[in-house]
Amino acid sequence: MVNTLNMTLKHYNITNICLFISCVIIWSTSWLAITTQISNTAPAVSLFWRFFLASVTLCIVDFFHSSQKINSKRALFESALIGISYYFLGIWLTYEATYYIPSAFLACLSTTAIFFTLFIKKIFWQQPLLKVMILGALISTLGLTIFFFDQLSSQEGAAKGVALALLSFFLIAVGSVVTERVNKKYQMSSIKINKIAIFTACIAFMITCVYQNQPLSVPLSAEFLLPLFYLGIVCSALAFVLFTSMVSRMGTEYAQYVVFIYPLVATYIAYAVGEISLSFNMVLGSVLVIIGFAVGMYNKPSDVPQRQEKELGEAKNPS
Fold first, then answer.
1. Residue 233 carries which DSSP code?
2. Cα distance between residue 296 and residue 102, in whole Å
3. Positive or negative, the Cα torsion across 53, 57, 60, 62?
4. Angle, helices 131-147/112-124, rounded to nearest 10 degrees
5. Phi/psi at 56 (5° precision)
6. What pTM does this model have?
7. Please, which pLDDT band fits residue 202 given cuts at 50, 70 and 90?
8. Cα(120)–Cα(149) distance, rounded to whole angstroms?
9. How many whole angstroms separate alpha carbon 114 and alpha carbon 120?
């Protein structure tokens, strides 16, 4: 019995590591494609086509690989809510914030998603605030700020950019917490949740484009379409399914440590291709982020297979 449990926990932890690394690698390379997109089209148009491709991809995968049927209207509603709060408003406002603040500043502000998540779960799930988690997140936030310190600057409209960014990360935290709840309460697969959420976001972006009189036409060049397919299929359909799986297995606050790691990896990729130079602040910031990550993950629950029934009961309590 003990050996079986140990093997289950070992498999569980290895799977979590693979999911975490996969999300970091995918989102660390997404900036290359996003830069191409936003320089050629309006954010809402680019995001519509990105989520359209993701929606089609997940519908095809779900058709061939999932026999799960959704019998709860509440499950459909909450899955759609994820699409509105996270994939539509959260990501769109993040794009809009980049017009007012540097991307480095945005990366630092993205860490607030973890703090929003902790307080949301404290208020609605009565989950105790984890001091170790807060300490680790604070250390990593300091590290990320030092890492990007040389790139931080004040510019016109910065206050509006910060407000948009904070609102976007709050909405992303809401969507992530709802994702964890839907998975545990309704036992819905990651593919099924994201199929509904991404389809909802796609419709929302289309309505937005029509309302703003923005044509849905895009450049038909390979330089635009290849990054678009990468963003839609890999960075959205695949990455969000992996992230949802990680949320359901680790908990939202632990899965969101991805936001500390992938900006660093993306920057080091830029350094590797010769776009930026390495600085002392970057090295020091990287060390602090890793220390904060280790502190925050120190008490990460690895006994989820044992606690699944308990957590499911807790997730069912909210109405």
1. I
2. 27
3. negative
4. 160
5. -60, -45
6. 0.83
7. very high
8. 29
9. 10
